[in-house]
Design a protein that fits this description.
The protein is mainly α. The protein has five helices and two strands; from the N terminus they run ααααββα. The chain has helices at about 5-25, 40-60, 75-80, 95-110, 135-155, and strands at about 120-125, 130. Strands 1-2 form a two-stranded antiparallel ribbon. A hairpin with a 2-residue loop joins strand 1 (about 120-125) and strand 2. Helix 1 runs parallel beside helix 5 (about 135-155). The longest helix has 25 residues, at about 135-155. The protein is globular and about 50 Å long.
């Protein structure tokens, strides 16, 4: 298995883990913040989608004109790195899930065309954990698992049993 195939496999694993959590969390609960909570499931979903774009597309090949079809500029404001979860957004759970799926599908379409030799190149937009293209892809998978853990914790605080 090549390094690129390994990175893609980790992205797929992380997404499948996240989807398992989301599929067992009613969308009616996505905006509910537990007492003393600082986040909710909907923000986690939007943030995972935006972060996957930034780490697995934007930091790998830069911005492209077609990227505007993935999500709106408002989406970046609501779910980007410095965003704060809002009690409600203009994005219902079905739309958040659609963005999550759309970004991931684009990543899986583009990454197989990446030359293995490019993996050691620096990213065009530096990040503390993602200094090369390979590290950006690996951090993308790890970052998603970090937020999947937060979704799992939110589920527990909302009264749902652990899944695994």
């Amino acid at each position: 298995m090549s390094r690129l195939q390994l990175a893609v496999a980790q992205l797929v694993f992380a997404r499948n883990y996240t989807l398992g959590l989301l599929d067992q969390t009613p969308t009616t609960e996505w905006f509910r913040q537990p007492a003393g909570g600082v986040s909710h499931v909907a923000w986690q979903v939007g943030h995972i989608a935006f972060s996957e774009y930034r780490l697995a597309l934007w930091r790998i090949r830069g911005e492209r004109p077609g990227d505007a079809a993935l999500f709106s500029p408002d989406f970046k404001r609501l779910f980007g790195a410095d965003s704060v979860p809002q009690a409600d957004t203009t994005y219902p759970p079905a739309e958040l899930r659609a963005v999550l799926d759309r970004v991931h599908e684009q990543v899986l379409r583009e990454l197989p065309g990446l030359d293995e030799a490019e993996l050691d190149q620096p990213v065009p937009h530096p990040h503390p954990f993602a200094t090369t293209k390979l590290r950006a892809l690996l951090w993308c998978a790890h970052h998603e698992m970090l937020h999947a853990g937060q979704i799992g914790l939110l589920r527990r605080h909302l009264g749902y049993p652990p899944m695994w």
